[in-house]
Sequence to fold (188 residues):
Amino acid sequence: QASRESYGLSGYRILMFPGTARPHKGLEDVLIALDKLNEPDLRLVIVGGRKPDNYDDELLEKWGRWIIKLPRYPAEQMAHIVAAAHIVVVPQRDTPTARAQFPLKLTDGMAMAKPILATRVGDIPEILGETGYLVDPNSPKQIAAQIQWIFQNLESASEQGKRSRERCVAYYSFEAMAAILSKVISRL
Fold:
């Protein structure tokens, strides 16, 4: 709650996307889901990202009532920002670009023990294991249903978020990655 107050997000249920908005990242599917739900306290918070084009502006023009855009912050501040989220969303569309990515938004949300709502694209299911909420890509209807379920079962979703943090520490922390890379390098 303190983080939500710091960033002017009090009074909202926050779906957070910490990163650069691009068509293959599926934010339009989340915004369509928010239109379907039509609950006035829901907001998609887009944090930072690079702005080489006007895609953010296109999203704001069409769905501005659902979006809060925060600027880019230093990496050291991201934990405090992600703390404001109720749910971290990673709604990748099934494209070659999306399939080839390891979305860092996943580990940002996992590290902060947040419920993660993501699509079954590329390695996302493997990265999350059984600790996230997965839907099919390009499916605003499924996204809307999961958003409703998570908020209706927030205590259970918070427990799921804690399990995602445990998985993140075990597999994706600096210590875990250093051990893996050390073995790889020693074989070379």
